[in-house]
Amino acid sequence: MPKKSKELSALSVAKIKETGRHSVGGVDGLCLNIEGNSRVWILRAVVGKRLDKDGKLKPHRRDIGIGPYPEVSLAEARAKATELRLQIRSGIDPIAHKQQQLEKLHVQQLRDKTFMECAKVVIANKTRELKNEKHIGQWSSTLETYIYPTLGDLSISVITKVDIAKVLEPIWAEKNETAKRLRGRIETIFDYAKAMEYFEGDNPAEWKGNLEPILGNLKQESRPHPSLPYDQVSTFVQHLRQKDGISPKALEFAILTACRSGEIFGATWQEIDLKNKVWTIPKERMKAEKEHRVPLSEPVIELLKSIQIYTQSQGYIFPAPRGGGMLSDMSLTALIKRMHEQKLKENCLGYIDPKQNRVITTHGFRSTFRDWSADMTDYPREVCEHVLAHKLPDEVEAAYLRGAYLEKRKGLMTDWAKFCIPFTP
User: What are phi and psi of 89, to 5 degrees?
Assistant: First the structure.
């Protein structure tokens, strides 16, 4: 039977200075290893067997690190060594077991992503997919407002449909359109998490048979954007031209081209051909994902030339006043609201859609143009629809109109400009 080492006291251990391995007793194989300034606890133990060079099984002796001295005291080292020997008796290799635990923890940490971390990856991916900064901003702003405060820092693996329903419920009736879009964004984020194996099971943000029974469907009434009657457009444009700044220019440009606000805000000088009086919007920025050529009337050309020297170096034709980024919908909405309130003070009705009794919107001027072109001109319906970049049901017809009807659209936009600005030569 091997000789047992003398059980040293804590004071005796503290006095050991010589380089080498020193048995401290108390637990078989427990040593203090000293090399230079390094003082480390080691348990020397037999862990199973291994084949030697002759192919014979022999005891497999291993050195198992317990920790540095004096951070790990003598008593702590003996307790840990006793625990390790119990593991060995149970057939567990402590070193292999520790490595497995570390690997398991590493995998768990890789998979333990918060909802916010997953959302930011999805938003970064969407930035490459979406057509304009407005939609990208909506992804971020809705999540920051409604989701991050409660679910943002939670591990996505533990979030349930009940958690999602709780954050959607307060806005489900009051802001149903926003809530529905938000639910779809959450579902996309969980699709990503599931693909990356951060989440297991069914997507908790799915609608059918999942959130639908909890939140319920709401009957939605579709309402068009409030628009100004076309017989008031000339008065509005005259009023608009009294305003200074980039927003009034952008709004006039939107009215005279009948384009969507997002197409206006993202417009760059590289897209403008002043010589041929055409604005070519690339398909990446169009709702129908097809390149759109917009004929520019003389008042539009004059408007562009009036701001070219101020904004050409900034890239965007209508940059935001602060920071030089993209102009926002709110800037035009606020402008229309101010103009409306000014008219009210003059004992006028202001700028109201009489059918809805609501203040007009930027997008509403597209409806104004369409009503005017139908009532006041003889241009074919297809030509008017193509001005608005609406998708035509017949693909062959649509392709034909993109080329052959450009001249007719030039005439239509010139007539529209003359209607909006009667003194246009």
Answer: -60, -30
CA distance 202 to 213: 16
**Over the range 189-228, which residues count as b (16 or more CB within 10 Å of their CB) and which as e?**
bbbbbeeeebbeeebbbbeeebbeeebeeeeeeeeebbbb
Res 53: pLDDT = 73
pLDDT, position 425 = 47
CB atoms within 10 A of CB 160: 10
Residues contacting residue 308 through CB under 8 Å, at least 6 positions apart: 269
Report the chain's C-alpha Rg in angstroms.
37
In angstroms, the CA 348 to CA 304 distance is 32
| CA distance linking residue 370 with residue 7, whole number of Å | 98
SS3 112: coil
Extract the tokens encoding 372.
Answer: 């005017």
Low-confidence residues in the chain, pLDDT < 50: 1-2, 396, 404, 424-425
Residue from 135, 60, 120, 64 nearest 95 by CA:
64
Summarised one tens digit per residue, pLDDT across range 200-236 is 889 999 999 889 888 887 665 567 889 999 999 999 9
In eight-state DSSP terms, residue 287 is T
Spatial contact of 91 and 28, defined as CB atoms under 8 Å apart: no
Q: What is the reported pLDDT for 103? A: 67
Select from 383, 373, 384, 378 the least CA-distant residue to 405: 383
Q: What is the CB neighbour count within 10 angstroms for residue 381?
A: 11
Find the distance separating the first CA and the last CA of the chain, reported in whole Å. 116
Q: Contact 418/424 with Cβ under 8 angstroms?
A: yes
Q: Which long-range contacts (CB under 8 A, 24 or more apart) does 98-103 make?
A: none
Strands 20-23 and 30-35 come out as: antiparallel
Upper half-sphere CA count for residue 159 (Cβ side, 13 Å): 31
Q: Which residues contact 321 (CB under 8 A, 6 or more apart)?
A: 245, 246, 247, 331
Cis link prior to 70 (omega < 30° from 0)? Answer: yes
